[in-house]
Every structure is written in C-alpha cells, then in structure tokens.
Amino acid sequence: MLKIISALAVALAMAAPNLSMAASLTGHVAYSGDPVYSVVSDNLQYPDGSPYSDLPVLLICIDHTTQPPFDVDTSFFSEAGTSAIKGSSGAAGVAAIHWLIETYYLTYYKNGTGQQQRALQYALWEIGNDYDGTAASINAISGNSRPAYENNTHDVVYPGDPAFITAFQTLYQAMVTALPTLPTGFRSTTYTVDLFTNQNPALQPMVAVIERAPPNMVPTAVPTITGTPHVGSTVTGTYTYFDNNSDIENPSGTTYKFVTSTNPSMANSSEGTVVATGSTGGASSSVTYSLQPSDLNKYLYFCVTPAALTGASPGLEVCTVASGPVVTPPPPPTVTAVPSLGQWALMALASMLALFGMARVRQRRS
Prior knowledge:
Layout: H1 2-15, E1 24-31, E2 38-41, E3 57-61, E4 72-77, H2 91-110, H3 114-130, H4 162-178, E5 192-198, E6 206-210, E7 220-226, E8 234-242, E9 255-261, E10 273-279, E11 287-290, E12 299-305, E13 318-319, H5 343-365
Antiparallel strand pairs: 1-2, 1-4, 2-3, 3-6, 4-5, 5-6, 7-8, 8-11, 9-10, 9-12, 12-13
C-alpha cells in the first residue's frame, strides 16, 4: 500500500507540479539560446529524488537586477509566489505573470520572432520589478525594465529595431489595459506555470512553464463587510466570486459566516466565534447581521467559502479584515425646547405691536 501511495504522489507531482508543496528543487539547467534569458531543464527533482515534471521545464528570468543561471547545476524553491517578485505588486504580480504566459507564450515565445521573444522578456521584467498593481506603474521608459532606452547589446534584437519597438509597445499597452482589473486569483489554464526563487540570491528568480494544462482549480472569493460596528446596527456582507476555469458558482453551495473575535486579525473562522452562518445565495446577493450586546468590544469578520457547480470545489475560506471593535451607539442628541409665550403674554405683545404701529402712522402724518 505504501508503494502505491508513493507512486501516486510521484505521478501527481509529474502531472501537476504546481499542486505540490513548496520545496527545494535541484537539477541542471541549459541556456536555450534564444533572445529571452531562459533555460531549460529536464531533470529537476525534489529532495527525495522524485521528478518535478516528466516534461521539459522552461524557465524564464523575471528579475532585471540579478544574473541568469546559465548552464549550471542549480537549486530553486518552487511555489515561491510573491517572494519571486522584486516589485510591490504582490498577488497581482503573480496573476499578471500567469496572464502574460497564458496570452503570449505561444505567439511571442514559441512561434515568435526574436524581436517578439525579447519584448516578452522585457514584459516579464516589468512585472517582476516595476509593476505595483496600477496602470501607471507600467512604463517603457523608466524603472528597472525600460525597453525604450535600455542599451540592449544582444546580437539579434536592438532597441532601435522597428519590429522590436512594435512588439514591446503592443505588450505594454495590453498590460496597461488588462492588468489593473485582472483578478488576483487568475491562473493559466493552458500551461502549468510556477514561480521559482533561486537558492543563490545572486541568481535570477524564474517563471517555470510546462506545456501542459494544470488541473482544474477551485474558485476564490473576495469578501467585504460594510456598516457601522455599533450594537444594534446591521452590517452587510458581500463578496466577488472568481473561478479561473470559468466554472459557474453554486449559489446554494457557497457559504458564509459572521465571526467575532477579541483579536484584530484572524486567518480563518475557526479562530473566532461564529455568530451567524448560512448559504449566501450567490455573489449577486448580500447577507446581513444585527450586532448584539454580546458582540460589544469584539471585532467582526465576514468569511466566505466559495463553491462551483462544476469542476474543483469548494474553494478555501476567505475572511475580511477586522471591522470594529463593536461599540455602543452614541446617545441621541438632546433636543432643546423652544420657549413659548402664554396667552396673556401673546395678548400683551399684540397690543404693544398695535400701539407701535399707530405711533408710526401718526409720525408719518405729522
């Protein structure tokens, strides 16, 4: 039985390395010889000797500030995620690299001209070094990656080459348009894409590409909570739903929890007290919760576990940042009564006004 389990584990790692836990990889990498700073390896393996992939792995540099690992025995950390990105884009950068490979690997790298391949390299450097999640940070003439001004001494592609200029302008404009609204959970469905950090910090982090589609991925959710954290007030929980494989949400399967905790941060609902739970009814709906006296001085969270009708499901539970702490509502403002005149006072005032009016008339006649 242990042999069968071990064999299944190896098969899973070979078929879908991006599902494996982050681990050390070793192997030989050979320069592929094209205008992209890339290497190819067919013998990357885990510490136990199991292969990372049964297909060749293409690794392309995503950092403009360190040296590429050419034709060496090297070691990486797989599943590096945001730690492989030098810029400040975080999860948005991981999604952007997946999008770039998904959209342009075939046309710009595998079947592209030297100018297109080199433009793809600059686009990866832009995401890896300068992108911060905004369109304004994608800039061809500033930052670490600047294809419009870089003195590219490569013997195939030069900055003044019109074909190169057209290629990088096309990529940069596409990034400006697509990346700021790209869901952070976006992942390639055409290729298996992984981010590596080099165990030698002087050498490049890489994006690893295997020409095989990864397994179906679970859906993701981004929850939000709105409302005033006052005892007696009603707060509203909403969320966005995303599935990288375009699997439609299961409205009755997606669940929510309102959770309270004395801690101002929380990783999942098990770390707090669940005060309300149920089915969301889908991302187009919203759910509410009325804050109770027992919630006083506690932080409130809204947690969602998304579910899809087809494909891999459910996704992982995701919780909002803390709302609160919950406090008692402020007392209503004090209403000051406007002084009023009694019946005799009103009569006296009317008489005085009448006399004043008569005096004014006489004054004018005289």
